[in-house]
Task: inverse folding
């Protein structure tokens, strides 16, 4: 459902049904979230590859965001500040032709110690999700999900 050429003005009387688009978007984000959680329950995150270029993404993430510790709670205000948005935009653009839906919205846990929940989940772009979750997985920070699922 194209919105028109880049930079074109969007007039409300000419716009398609954005409410339906938002619902479809939300459904896709929730599907991604539940699928990822189901995978973590079936396989230790430390053994999981999210993309064909996990190593490249991880090294780029560490270089561009050395201050972000995957063990800590993400500061959403910092991430979404003007400077944060610019830093992440620059990071994500490197994957425009490498990762499908690189800039699609998804859900990200603010802290790897907790399940997805209303207060523990933030809206993020797909490349933010990949960068942070790859870093968490490499450090074994998501392995508890698998262990919890198999302890019952």
Result:
């Amino acid at each position: 459902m194209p919105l028109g050429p880049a930079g074109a003005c969007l007039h409300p009387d000419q716009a398609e049904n954005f409410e339906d688009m938002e619902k479809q978007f939300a459904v896709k984000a929730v599907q991604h979230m539940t699928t990822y959680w189901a995978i973590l329950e079936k396989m230790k995150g430390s053994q999981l590859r999210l993309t064909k270029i996990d190593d490249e993404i991880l090294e780029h993430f560490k270089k561009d965001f050395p201050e972000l510790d995957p063990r800590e709670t993400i500061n959403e205000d910092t991430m979404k500040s003007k400077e944060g948005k610019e830093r992440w935009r620059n990071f994500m653009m490197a994957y425009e032709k490498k990762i499908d839906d690189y800039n699609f919205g998804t859900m990200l846990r603010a802290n790897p110690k907790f399940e997805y929940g209303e207060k523990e989940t933030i809206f993020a772009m797909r490349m933010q999700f990949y960068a942070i979750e790859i870093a968490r997985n490499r450090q074994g920070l998501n392995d508890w999900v698998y262990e919890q699922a198999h302890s019952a």
Q: What stands out?
A: Helices lie at 18-42, 54-64, 76-79, 82-93, 126-138, 143-149.
